[in-house]
């Protein structure tokens, strides 16, 4: 499936409005999310990009200094988080904080995204 067709203009605009380095990280994470599964659907809600498949899977939240790759059911991913990247103390939400391009770990992030999708199968 063509990832370009899956992109929505609200998220294009969101990334364009970010500082260049943060925009680059956000764009790379967006591509990684799309390549994790052809079933993930991009939406723009709560002022940020969200990705869902049979329910919410993950989101991207950019700030001036970092980007969070967040998981709505992150608490249920702890055992899959072999590198202890997930942060957060909320009831269910967890996130991985990415401060530079080198922090992106494609294999690790992809497996967590796919595990998050699997949680929605139940």
Please tell me about this protein's structure.
By secondary structure, this protein is an alpha+beta fold. The mean pLDDT is 95. 28% of the residues are buried. The protein has helices at 3-6, 9-16, 20-36, 106-119, and strands spanning 41-45, 48-52, 56-62, 67-71, 94-98. Strand 1 and strand 2 form a beta hairpin. The protein has one domain (3-119): Aspartate Aminotransferase, domain 1 (Alpha-Beta Complex). InterPro entries: YdhG-like. Residues 26-117 form the YdhG-like domain. It comes from Virgibacillus profundi. Pfam families: DUF1801.
The biggest beta sheet is recorded as: 5 strands, antiparallel
Q: Give the ordered list of helices and strands.
A: HHHEEEEEH
Helical amount: 25-40%
CATH T-level fold name: Aspartate Aminotransferase, domain 1
Global morphology: globular
Count of folded domains: 1
The CATH architecture assignment turns out to be Alpha-Beta Complex
Percent of residues in beta strands = 15-25%
Oligomer: single chain
CA(first)-CA(last) distance = 25 Å
InterPro entries: YdhG-like
Pfam families: DUF1801
Domain YdhG-like: 26-117
Protein name: YdhG-like domain-containing protein
Write the layout of secondary structure elements.
Layout: H1 3-6, H2 9-16, H3 20-36, E1 41-45, E2 48-52, E3 56-62, E4 67-71, E5 94-98, H4 106-119
Structure described in brief:
With 122 residues, the protein is α+β, with helices and mostly antiparallel strands.
Features of this protein?
122 residues, Aspartate Aminotransferase, domain 1, 5-stranded antiparallel beta sheet, 35% helix
């Amino acid at each position: 499936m063509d990832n370009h067709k899956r992109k929505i203009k609200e998220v294009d605009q969101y990334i364009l409005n970010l500082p260049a380095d943060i925009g680059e990280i956000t764009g790379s994470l967006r591509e990684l999310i799309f390549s994790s599964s052809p079933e993930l659907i991009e939406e723009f809600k709560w002022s940020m990009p969200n990705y869902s498949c049979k329910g919410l899977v993950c989101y991207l939240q950019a700030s001036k200094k970092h980007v969070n790759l967040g998981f709505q059911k992150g608490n249920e991913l702890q055992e899959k988080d072999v590198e202890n990247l997930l942060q957060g103390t909320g009831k269910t939400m967890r996130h991985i904080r990415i401060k530079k391009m080198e922090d992106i770990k494609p294999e690790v992030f992809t497996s967590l995204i796919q595990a998050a999708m699997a949680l929605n199968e139940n």
